[in-house]
Amino acid sequence: xxxxxxxxxxxxxxxxxxxxxxxxxxxxxxxxxxxxxxxxxxxxxxxxxxxxxxxxxxxxxxxxxxxxxxxxxxxxxxxxxxxxxxxxxxxxxxxxxxxxxxxxxxxxxxxxxxxxxxxxxxxxxxxxxxxxxxxxxxxxxxxxxxxxxxxxxxxxxxxxxxxxxxxxxxxxxxxxxxxxxxxxxxxxxxxxxxxxxxxxxxxxxxxxxxxxxxxxxxxxxxxxxxxxxxxxxxxxxxxxxxxxxxxxxxxxxxxxxxxxxxxxxxxxxxxxxxxxxxxxxxxxxxxxxxxxxxxxxxxxxxxxxxxxxxxxxxxxxxxxxxxxxxxxxxxxxxxxxxxxxxxxxxxxxxxxxxxxxxxxxxxxxxxxxxxxxxxxxxxxxxxxxxxxxxxxxxxxxxxxxxxxxxxxxxxxxxxxxxxxxxxxxxxxxxxxxxxxxxxxxxxxxxxxxxxxxxxxxxxxxxxxxxxxxxxxxxxxxxxxxxxxxxxxxxxxxxxxxxxxxxxxxxxxxxxxxxxxxxxxxxxxxxxxxxxxxxxxxxxxxxxxxxxxxxxxxxxxxxxxxxxxxxxxxxxxxx
Length: 574
Known about the structure:
This protein is α/β, with parallel strands linked by helices. It has helices spanning 8-19, 24-27, 47-50, 63-69, 91-101, 112-115, 126-141, 157-160, 169-185, 198-206, 221-243, 245-248, 269-293, 298-310, 323-329, 358-361, 383-396, 418-436, 482-493, 524-529; strands at 33-34, 40-44, 105-109, 145-151, 191-196, 251-257, 260-263, 336-339, 343-348, 364-367, 401-405, 442-448, 467-469, 478-480, 495-496, 514-519, 544-547, 552-559, 564-570. It contains 20 helices and 19 strands.
């Protein structure tokens, strides 16, 4: 039972710390098991990142079209999404990839400006609508469930010209667009998401200004936009609930994102509180109003309000909701959709007071452990997946959870991507532990991404795809990577069941593997760490652990017949 004097958010973190303070050796042990029978395995993409055809067949420009066409944009190699994967013209190829993967769901977004070129329902583009109808029909015919995101950052430029999300009229314009999508596609689409990663939309678009519309207002801009997004989301939810749910019987939510926040010193209360603040300012910012009480987390209200007062402002930079608005926003999601990729080590800090900033309001510093395997974007820390899923359960109850994005970006364009296999294997395994060992109501997992695509400011230099795309070829041919075959195997097995006793495991280790053999009787602690008793067995992948200093990992293989163990060194991600 939570003591009355402990903040509920901090209590959730402290309970996890008590439950999960196992040694790293134990934390990283591999777990064999399967997910629920109806587990929804999928892959994800988004319209601007894959479709191309930026001005084809009547499509209107989006803010990302305008941004990437403006000289001096900060996209690597001045890349654009003008062609991208050219999915608009290669629908059959995309469907073939999805069938080959044997996924049960495909998460994609609809381009608002492809359906409504001016952003308004007075300008319906029938050829754009036809593209999505053909995509959805192809998915349904293949027994693949469409999971549709209504807004994945590509606002019609015509609506940005009238102020974008800072214009209150956007709420009703977005609702009109969503209403059209429900009416047009809802007979086949049963899983909707209103927004993708609104935290990044608000901060990168209106705080740091790195993303379009490139507004640099770090102290107030993100909070204003977040406020507008929550109102728009709630409006669309109620439209679906009142007009379509009874007949279409779908679910609706939004995809939220965060890294796991690990306190630098779990025994230091201020670090524990700082770790929770990071989660509240990233995930709780939108989850708390929707899944708790219609209002922002106390940690946000306290910190932003206090710092605003110290900055001699008349009111908090964090807007407030009326009681009527709180009631309208609360409980406007049927499931919890999560995008997550990595973890952070967090400690308390007291940053400068001015100029005001959303980042400084959190009063913390975050970093990645240099011993974690490196990738092109983040360092991998798979154990954070399990802890994050448990935190969500502690914070918001036993709501069904779907992981709608998880993946790894690499610079190597090759198809023998053993690093990506290792990433997905370990992250999915931590999700499996959360489901089987901790009772988290996990219902689905979608890998990011189906194929290499336009990766925002990284252009085409970072590869997330299970399929390789040759962007130097006008036809954009797709080639399955080794990770695609591995993911299909995981889907077929519905997880990671224990291999049969006499099963031979096929595969290839990464270049640079270091093999070592030793007699297990000489190192009894290794046997204990592997979880092996007398006559026990472990197979490749049954045990792994990070190795400090070289950002690699060890995999243990126990050979019962010779009473010996092999330790295999996996080098760091490229």
